[in-house]
DNA sequence: CTGAAAGCGCTTACAG
DNA sequence: CTGAAAGCGCTTACAG
């Protein structure tokens, strides 16, 4: 590899002068600068960042520990947002997938710390509590789409309570008074919070909460036996029947479109629907289009990185708002 | 930061001995090794990888230039596969999103080359031709899910022709003789190849190709005016009507489930469907489940990285097979 | 089995 | 405006 000395020899100057040109130091005669510049291009010289890092005692790298963020649909937007802000601050992100694997996680962390990362980001593909490895406390760190109850770390999560409220409010505004909720597994953080939002919306509309209107759409992976079909069946068996349903996620909603047909009910005609996630593969392709709450993935990624570059170290949990994506499923047309 | 010298002082030895312990050199007395080990833990010492890189003249890093691979659903599996193989070879991947942006791409490339990446991977989220930046030719490089007609680089892409063949064959095996194809925009590589596979399957079944059975489901982003609805309408207007349809992607298929209802046709009963992509958000949630061809994302990522670690430098295009994911949509039940 | 010297490619601080 | 010296934290090659 060609080094600063090779360039110096080629340009007939000292290597220190080359360093000045590379770093755009002002104190170089224009003529010398030009000559060095030409040599740099002639030899295709690139400064060795390892040498720079060693001398400067900083790496310019921020570690990004990803729990399936890059493989789950759209969660990659967290990474995208993080990369945007990092790049604005001339930092580069080093991304490692940890994929639930303890040993991998430890190896990844060791590797990142040996590379002297200046900060660490731990991001999950869904909103949940995570165990924070103790090494994370040795450098500035933030959590994205996850939180810890044992370690005090700044944490950026979606505001699932607000989303639950808004998804319900949209239906209340259309005059519905009997609104079902097909819930996620209650062990999921989002399930609890969205339910709370649903209840708050009802309360604000002065409608008594009826627990029979809340049914579970599925168990956690491989654990539950309840299905979306059972959930729909039990809602449809109620007297009076709900005239609208809040679906715990777009996948539920998609299934519900089909399941309701068996009761002679068409979404957007006899029954209204709202949902969560704004999966771009699902929501716009249903007809009528699915009205759903979009997760603030990009904003969480941006906010988390932004926080790292701010002086204040406030270790609280920030809840970022969902966006209401209004299509047609929450409206009824005859 | 604590260095090798600090550890040496703490352990009462020379820093060279510490280096030996860290690198597991055999020639160290057990007693000394233990003492040094304790000092390492006491001081929480971690070798500085920048110093190592400089001394060893290699970075252990492979650059991964991603064109939306981490943000598009499931394309992240390319990265996952790449990371698996890199990790098996004790290399680490440095991922940068380039997102169509020329300037970003140049910056990313410069950064990676200054970090002395030992190889480069350029990956696209869909199968297409890409412009290869000239700097890529200065280090070993591979293309994933994309190819170049001007530069000779090893390239790993999905075998869209085979997929088209298989998606059609599944329907032929069920006795269908009149099979529609709702095609992607023909400017897309996959559209051309899948059509070729469709035609080969028909030919092998000794069925004459009828161009009226091939309709376009959409134009490229913002360009075409043709919709899935028009495509379905024109297929349904044919005499005789097709009894089965190959859909260019799962999103088409999803829409087709709904659109066919207007003709009184239920997928899996009066009409059979196959498709491409195996979007896990869509295919299993349709009823009946969608039979579709799964893209070999993980395999492409793995194969591409594997190629970098092999001695031979064969610059040809490898086409990796799709998997047939059989659900129920290609079968008819009354 | 252990250590002193040299050098990887840079930058910082000081001279000229 | 330009240069020689020292040092960042390691490893390689050579002595003892």
TrEMBL record, chains A, B:
Signal peptide: none annotated. This is HTH lacI-type domain-containing protein. Residues 2-56 form the HTH lacI-type domain. The keyword Iron does not apply. InterPro entries: HTH_LacI, Lambda_DNA-bd_dom_sf, Peripla_BP/Lac1_sug-bd_dom, Peripla_BP_I. The keyword Repressor applies. PROSITE patterns: HTH_LACI_2. GO terms for molecular function: DNA-binding transcription factor activity; transcription cis-regulatory region binding. It comes from Marinobacterium aestuarii. Keywords: DNA-binding, Repressor, Transcription, Transcription regulation.
């Amino acid at each position: 590899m060609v080094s600063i000395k090779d360039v110096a020899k080629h340009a007939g100057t000292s290597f220190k002068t080359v360093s000045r040109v590379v770093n755009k130091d002002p104190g170089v005669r224009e003529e010398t600068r030009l000559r060095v510049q030409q040599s740099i291009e002639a030899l295709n010289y690139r400064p060795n960042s390892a040498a720079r890092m060693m001398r400067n005692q900083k790496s310019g790298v921020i570690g990004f520990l990803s729990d399936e963020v890059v493989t789950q649909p759209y969660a990659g937007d967290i990474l995208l947002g993080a990369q945007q802000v990092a790049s604005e601050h001339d930092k580069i992100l080093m991304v490692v997938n940890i994929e639930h694997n303890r040993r991998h996680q430890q190896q990844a962390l060791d590797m990142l710390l040996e590379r002297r990362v200046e900060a660490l980001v731990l991001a999950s593909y869904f909103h949940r509590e995570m165990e924070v490895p103790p090494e994370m406390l040795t450098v500035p760190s933030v959590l994205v789409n996850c939180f810890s109850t044992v370690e005090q770390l700044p944490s950026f999560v979606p505001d699932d309570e607000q989303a639950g409220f808004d998804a319900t409010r949209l239906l209340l505004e259309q005059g519905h008074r009997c609104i079902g909720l097909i819930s996620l597994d209650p062990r999921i953080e989002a399930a609890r919070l969205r339910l709370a939002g649903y209840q708050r919306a009802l309360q604000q509309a002065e409608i008594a909460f009826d627990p029979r209107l809340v049914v579970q759409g599925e168990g956690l992976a491989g654990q539950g036996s309840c299905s979306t079909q059972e959930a729909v069946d039990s809602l449809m068996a109620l007297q009076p029947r709900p005239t609208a349903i809040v679906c715990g996620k777009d996948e539920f909603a998609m299934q519900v479109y089909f399941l309701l047909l068996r009761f002679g009910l068409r979404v957007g005609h006899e029954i209204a629907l709202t949902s969560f996630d704004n999966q771009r593969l699902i929501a716009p392709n249903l007809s009528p289009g699915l009205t759903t709450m979009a997760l603030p993935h990009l904003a969480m990624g941006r906010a988390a990185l932004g926080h790292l570059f701010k002086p204040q170290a406030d270790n609280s949990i920030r809840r970022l708002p969902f966006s209401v994506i209004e299509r047609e499923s929450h409206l009824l047309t005859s």
